[in-house]
Amino acid sequence: MDYASNVWSHRCGWRETRWLNEAQKLGAQAITGAFKTVSMAVAEAEAGILPIGERHAQAGTRLYVNMQTLPKAHPLATLRVRETRRYMSPLTKLALAHDGAIERMETIEPYALPPWHRHMVVEYDSDKEAAAYVDTGDDVTETSNLRQVLIATSASARNGLVGMGGIVRNTASGGANDNIVAKYSATLGPRDEQNAYMAELEAIAMVLRCMPDGLQHQDIIVATRNQSALQAIAKPRQQSGQGAIREIYKHARRQEKGSNTIKMRWVSSTNESFTLEVKAKTEARKATESGCKATKPPHQVDRPY
């Protein structure tokens, strides 16, 4: 019923819309087994079906976004919608509505990394109760010869803003709790453009980008409580955040040239012994205080419709 709706939906009058609504109501009744006297809105809500107009508008927006974010090598990448006023097609209306926001749209490639690229090691446990006792606490005295650099990253979304923060600690001196060598925080942008997932990826990319080249034979552990970000790093796919994931792998390979090892570790929210994550959360919340502004806004997050 929605086939090629981007072509004919703008020519759909009240009579055609009534036919579509009748067909949609029959489909909703078949799904839910409701009576014929049930209202259209109730049938759609019970069946989980969007209204005709809203569904066609989302399809048109999705087509417009896909056309504007095509890879440069795509044969249709050079085509642009002409903003003519004589005939206002649905795609032209979408172009006028999104005027000024096209440059910051994220282009999602078919893959983030080549298939032969070696993926990073991510340690996490699907059992949250067991993961709460993973050895990632602040007491690293017994394993100080292994854990040289411990990094905790966090994201915050409040006050209509999304921010990130992190703490870097050198644990080679016997696990001193105050041996923090760096801390950072940054505001990504408004909440309607960014989310905590993107902020977590940017936080990890920033800390690896700022790591010096002189590190030798050290174990670098990046700990976070955002499991979705770690899953995206472990198995990059055709999804939002590809730019940050490429930055993470780029600077991870740079550190590996000095015989360093980099591991990503998920820490459960029930693990109260890992206080470094609390400090990272404090830094992230500083970036979402009222009045904060994004220094360099990244790409807009591609939201599914």
**Rg (CA only):** 24 Å
Number of domains: 2
Strand content: 15-25%
Q: What overall geometry do the principal axes of the alpha carbons give? A: elongated
Largest β-sheet summary:
6 strands, mixed
* Biggest sheet strand line-up: 1-6-5-2-3-4
CATH class of the largest domain: Alpha Beta
Class of secondary structure makeup? alpha/beta
Care to count the β-strands?
Answer: 6
Q: Stretches where pLDDT falls below 50 for ≥5 residues?
A: 126-137, 139-145
Can you write the helix and strand succession as a string?
HHHHHEHEEEHEHHEH
Could you tell me how far the N terminus lies from the C terminus, measured between alpha carbons in angstroms? 18 Å
CATH architecture of the largest domain: 2-Layer Sandwich
Number of helices: 10
- In which range does the helix fraction lie? 25-40%
Fold-level CATH name of the largest domain: Nucleotidyltransferase, domain 5
Q: What value does the average pLDDT take?
A: 79
Determine the CATH superfamily of the largest domain: Ribonuclease H-like superfamily/Ribonuclease H
Characterize the structure shown.
With 305 residues, the protein is of the alpha/beta class. The protein folds into two domains: 5-97, no CATH class; 121-286, Nucleotidyltransferase, domain 5, CATH 3.30.420.10. The chain contains ten helices and six strands. The protein has a six-stranded mixed sheet, sandwiched between helices. Helix 2 packs across helix 3 (40-47), helix 7 (196-209) crosses helix 8 (227-234) and helix 7 (196-209) packs parallel to helix 9. The radius of gyration is 24 Å and the shape is elongated. The chain starts with a helix and ends in a 19-residue tail after the last helix. Residues 126-137 and 139-145 have low confidence and may be disordered. InterPro entries: RNaseH_sf. One of its GO terms (molecular function) is nucleic acid binding.
